[in-house]
Fold ABC transporter permease.
Amino acid sequence: MEFLKEVAQLYQERSEWFGQLICEHILLSLIAILLAGVIGLLLGILIARCEKAAPPVLGIANVFYTIPSISLLGMLIPFMGIGDKTAVVALTIYGIMPMVRNTYAGIKGVDEEIITAARGMGSTEFQILTRIKLPLALGVIIAGVRNMVVMTISVAAIASFIGAGGLGVAIYRGITVYDTALTFAGSVLIALIALISDLLLGHLEKKLKKRRMN
């Protein structure tokens, strides 16, 4: 209980600082999420249309996904320096994999008979993609978005090790000065942001499923 009181007091005394770190963390994560979302979606659509491109694209994405986050940041520093820009690139690379995989799986999971029927009715490939494939694959794609968002918010904590902002600064500072309350305070806030984001996306996913059933 004494430890939790210390954490609560820390939030109260340094509320402005934590508020600033929260804003930085959300902004950093949001930029990476948007970039990974767009790139991953486009790549997923591309490899679903061109099957030959699927194995190499998914393979490369898998390789980057398996590299430890701190190692990837270290590999990017000689080329991009330190700071937010390098952190955004690293987070984007990590976020692309679940988006590509789920977009590809969702589109390939659409019943071929539905697509054939749409073609028979004179629909163009673009109409089939935007009105049939993507809407039917939306549930799988949203699941990929949830995975990517939570992972990006969590991994963003390590960005402070290369001079980027966010709540990782509180964790890093707490570790360096042996302040467990500060480390815990930063970690809890990151977990809360990730949890709230996942709950909101889960609510959106349920709404989309209800619309499809109606």
The chain has one domain: 2-213. The mean pLDDT is 89. The longest helix spans residues 15-49. The CA atoms of residues 139 and 205 lie 7 Å apart.
